[in-house]
Amino acid sequence: MKKHGNLIVISGPSGVGKSTLIKRVRENLTDLQFSVSCTTRSPRQGEIDGKDYFFLSDSEFAAHLAAGDFLEHAQVFKHSYGTLRSEVSSRISRGEEVVLDIDVQGAKQIRQAMENDPLIAAAAQFIIIAPPDLETLKNRLCNRNSETPEQLQLRLDGAVNELKNFRVYDYLIVNGDLDTAAAELTGVLKSIRLRTRNIVGELF
Ligand code: ADP
Ligand code: 5GP
């Protein structure tokens, strides 16, 4: 049986635990691939260029944009972020499964791309991660200790807007207890793999 891959779009407010959950789930679903985004923000301590992000200058980002290299891109918290087509298209057509950690503007662009691109239309599924409450989110973001006060405020202000858009997504996972949320995300990803629309051609 031949199958298309899946394009798994995961969004949620900054600090909700997206990276932590994706990392955790990939320990079990080892064939799950992560699309490395481009960004013009500076690396945080421990972040590796080419693994966590491609950290680009403004002019490098603009060159990719002008060349039409991005499947989606957006300004998020005063920096540019974008998904390279090269991180996604060939992998999906090979039947591989690719996860995007992108914001709601990017998720909406992928929804639009589904209208013109049958491969994306067959592959894309949308998951939003929510915190149990806004206080927990604030604590996680503060405790991560990764942002300037200005960036912290931008991220907290953006959280409510991101969550208001939950109906853009197919699935909602509340990241309260990490083990529970990771098990739920694993379950969703496993069921997505069983969709009939992934099958190319006939069964036999
Ligand atoms: P995001 O990728 O969504 O911005 P991170 O994965 O960096 O968020 O998580 C933000 C912080 O919250 C990190 O310090 C992480 O260790 C912590 N964290 C993530 N999930 C949980 C959880 N379920 N319970 C407690 N802390 C968590
Ligand atoms: P951070 O700077 O905390 O890594 O990410 C900030 C926000 O940018 C998060 O909501 C994350 O999902 C989003 N983001 C990361 N990469 C991309 C991308 O390629 N495109 C879009 N649209 N958003 C992204």
Instruction: From the alpha carbons, calculate the radius of gyration and give it in angstroms.
Output: 17 Å
Could you tell me how far the N terminus lies from the C terminus, measured between alpha carbons in angstroms?
Answer: 7 Å
Ligands bound here? adenosine-5'-diphosphate, guanosine-5'-monophosphate
Number of helices: 8
Helix content: 40-55%
Order of helices and strands: EEHEEEHEEHEHHEHHEHE
Please state the average pLDDT score. 96
Given helix and strand content, the structural type is alpha/beta
- Main β-sheet description: 5 strands, parallel
Number of strands: 11
Q: Name the overall outline.
A: globular
* Adjacency order of strands in the biggest sheet: 3-8-2-9-10
Unreliable stretches: none
Beta-strand residue percentage: 15-25%
Structure commentary:
- This protein is of the alpha/beta class and 204 residues long.
- The chain is built from eight helices and eleven strands.
- The strands form three sheets. The chain has a five-stranded parallel beta sheet, with helices on both faces. Strands 5-4-7-6 form a four-stranded mixed beta sheet. Strands 1-11 form a two-stranded antiparallel ribbon.
Any chance you could write out the topology, listing elements then pairs?
Layout: E1 2-3, E2 6-11, H1 18-28, E3 32-34, E4 37-39, E5 53-55, H2 58-66, E6 70-76, E7 79-84, H3 89-93, E8 97-101, H4 104-116, H5 118-123, E9 124-130, H6 134-144, H7 149-164, E10 171-174, H8 178-192, E11 199-200
Parallel strand pairs: 2-8, 2-9, 3-8, 4-5, 9-10
Antiparallel strand pairs: 1-11, 4-7, 6-7
The site of guanosine-5'-monophosphate has 16 residues, from β6, β7 and α4.
